[in-house]
Amino acid sequence: YTGTAKIYEWNDAIGSIDPTPKYTLSLTRGVTVVTREDQLHPCVASLSNSTGNANNTLLVGALKPGVIIADVPIGVVLQSQDNATQTIRSQNGTTDTTIISQEDETASYGWTPESIKAEIREGTDGLLYKRVITGGTETWVVA
User: How many other C-beta atoms lie within 10 A of the C-beta of residue 26?
Assistant: First the structure.
């Protein structure tokens, strides 16, 4: 699905996630959808601290722990540095250090809120369409 992902950082000063997104990423395919095969190209975005990869969408400094909120279902692959020292809120309300993955890629799981669940159907032209309801009017857009 095409959409938008917003990345929010932990704010030590307020002891919570900062309400202003640090980054907003556009989730796009990079191809125009004309055929069903075009829809097999995944929608992706990249955010990286690496300066050596010209394929990165954004080049940034250290990104604090936080959350990613998207308006479409997404999968996230992340990587942390070897010596991460950031603290984040733990499940019991205290703070704890960042989970270190030794620079190995890790799949991160999330959940899809009820408000963005999607109904997908195949059209008579063979393309996949997503049902969108705005102000009581139903339309179908290419997924």
Answer: 12
